[in-house]
């Protein structure tokens, strides 16, 4: 790989996630200032959708920070950042509905969600050890060690890739729920979708960067063997 290509490649690795983060923060900042027509807080939105789907045992709690919203499948809790929990914005409603989408996936035993949960310990171990194996393999010109690092890294990359359908499905469920339950009006669908699409970009960017890095190391492995 030429120096110019290397500069472009590493530039993309840095810029793609930054661009995705800027998009989601921009969309969130803009639509967190726009009140939703129902006047419901994020907590109200989450509770309404949960109850509409019979998930009365799933709690809704506030959590500190911004965009720290998540669903905890172990505790069966939807946690919303305080701004979304108490606020009545379009962004807050969209984020709350998205996290409830994960709770619905959990209740329905959604296959990709189960697969992602099963990958967590493997992916964590793979991401921790792969860097050292790959670095040692490159420095020592040990193709076997490099290959082992690539195998472990593949588990972490697979986790990133499997995350995509999980997140897109949760957003799709969120749009359906906020419309079906009357939480938003038809003229608010566009703004809600913008928030959800911007958030999805961060996962796409993470998966793309992970795949690019994996491909680079695979190429290095073949080049090492050719030598």
Automatic annotation (TrEMBL):
The keyword Transmembrane is assigned to this record: yes
Domain of life: Bacteria
Keyword annotations from UniProtKB, A to Z: Membrane, Transmembrane, Transmembrane helix
InterPro entries: Zn_peptidase_2
Cited Pfam families: Zn_peptidase_2
Keyword check for NADP: no
Record-annotated membrane-spanning stretches: 6-22, 118-139, 145-166, 200-224
Protein name (record): Zinc metallopeptidase
């Amino acid at each position: 790989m030429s120096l110019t290509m290397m500069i472009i490649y590493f530039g993309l690795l840095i810029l793609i996630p930054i661009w995705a983060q800027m998009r989601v923060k921009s969309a969130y900042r803009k639509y967190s200032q726009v009140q939703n027509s129902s006047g419901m807080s994020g907590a109200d939105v989450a509770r309404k959708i949960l109850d509409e789907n019979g998930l009365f045992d799933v709690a809704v709690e506030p959590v500190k920070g911004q965009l720290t919203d998540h669903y905890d499948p172990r505790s069966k809790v939807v946690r919303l950042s305080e701004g979304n929990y108490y606020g009545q914005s379009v962004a807050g409603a969209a984020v709350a509905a998205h996290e409830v989408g994960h709770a619905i996936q959990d209740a329905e035993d959604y296959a990709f969600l189960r697969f992602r949960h099963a990958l967590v310990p493997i992916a964590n171990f793979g991401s921790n050890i792969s860097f050292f194996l790959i670095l040692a393999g490159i420095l020592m010109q040990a193709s076997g060690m490099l290959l082992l690092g690539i195998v472990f890294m593949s588990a972490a990359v697979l986790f990133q890739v499997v995350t995509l359908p999980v997140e897109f499905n949760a957003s799709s469920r969120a749009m359906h729920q906020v419309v079906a339950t009357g939480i938003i009006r038809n003229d608010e669908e566009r703004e809600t979708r913008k928030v959800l699409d911007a958030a999805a970009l961060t996962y796409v960017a993470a998966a793309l960067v992970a795949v690019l890095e994996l491909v680079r190391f695979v190429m290095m492995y073949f080049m090492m063997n050719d030598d």
